[in-house]
Design brief:
mainly beta; 8-stranded antiparallel β-sheet; 6-stranded mixed barrel; 4 helices; 14 strands; elongated; Expansin_CBD_sf
Length: 260
């Protein structure tokens, strides 16, 4: 039954054909702090992601939190003021406004501009854009696990994943004591946060499934949290995620931009 459930998660998480080029409109928040809500659970850490080029995504892209941390390349469609390359945004929140697929930070909005045209792009208020999902690149930084402040040792552990590279989604997480083969599953609380009330004692290891290729791939972080783990501390997993989740989106899965 667990295998069937996992396969369902894998299939359901890649039905949106993210890597295709999509047409939409985008608005912006004047303050990046508006993109740090509890929807993804990053809090103030979000301000340091991707140079502040942050985004709130509609539910079909947020995917009940599985889409948190996903990266998209976006460009506005007026060639007089907008660059061909556009900019990369990272999902840190949920957008409940169905008029636009994303609401992005001011910094991200202006980053779509040609040189010297940032203020002209900002004056648009709402811009016609096209976007596609792209791999996240954290410049060699490893996947990290943050122990959430809500954790209550030794009976409750909540963690979030940071710096998840590649073009993947984490769809399953297990935790065990280092050296043990007795794994306890964790559940997605919301956004990027996973939790369990069955916390093993001692130092902790994790294994998790990411969407990779047309299937899933197990990753094993053999020693992450020390026995004296602390709330609010970020721990290095020693792993870099570079996988690409493939989608059967023919004929649009080449990910090519339309003509500008």
């Amino acid at each position: 039954m667990a295998v069937i459930f996992l396969l369902f998660l894998l299939v359901s998480s890649v039905t949106a054909c993210d890597r295709c080029v999509h047409q939409s409109k985008v608005a912006y928040f004047s303050s990046a702090s508006a993109l740090q809500s509890a929807a993804c659970g990053y809090g103030n850490l979000a301000k340091g992601f991707n140079g502040g080029r942050l985004a709130a995504a509609i539910p079909s892209l947020n995917k009940d939190g599985a889409g948190c941390g996903a990266c998209y390349q976006m460009r506005c469609k007026d060639p007089k003021i907008c660059s061909k390359e556009g900019t990369t945004i990272i999902v840190t929140d949920l957008n409940t406004n169905n008029q636009t697929d994303f609401v992005i930070s001011t910094r991200a909005f202006m980053a779509m501009a040609n040189p010297g045209k940032a203020k002209d792009v900002l004056k648009l208020g709402i811009a016609d854009v096209e976007y596609k999902r792209v791999p996240c690149d954290y410049k060699g930084k490893n996947l990290a696990i943050r122990v959430e402040e809500s954790s209550q040792k030794p009976n409750y552990l909540a963690i979030s994943f940071l710096y998840q590279g590649g073009q993947t989604e984490i769809v399953g997480v297990d935790v065990a004591q280092v050296g043990s083969s007795s794994w306890n599953f964790m559940t997605r609380k919301h956004g990027a946060i996973w939790d369990t009330s069955r916390v093993p004692s001692g130092a902790l290891q994790f294994r998790f499934v990411v969407t990779a290729g047309y299937d899933g791939k197990w990753n094993w972080a053999k020693s992450v949290l020390p026995a004296n783990w602390k709330n609010g501390v970020i721990y290095d997993t020693g792993l870099q995620i570079t996988d690409i989740a493939q989608e059967g989106c023919s004929p649009c899965d080449d990910g090519n931009w339309k003509l500008h």
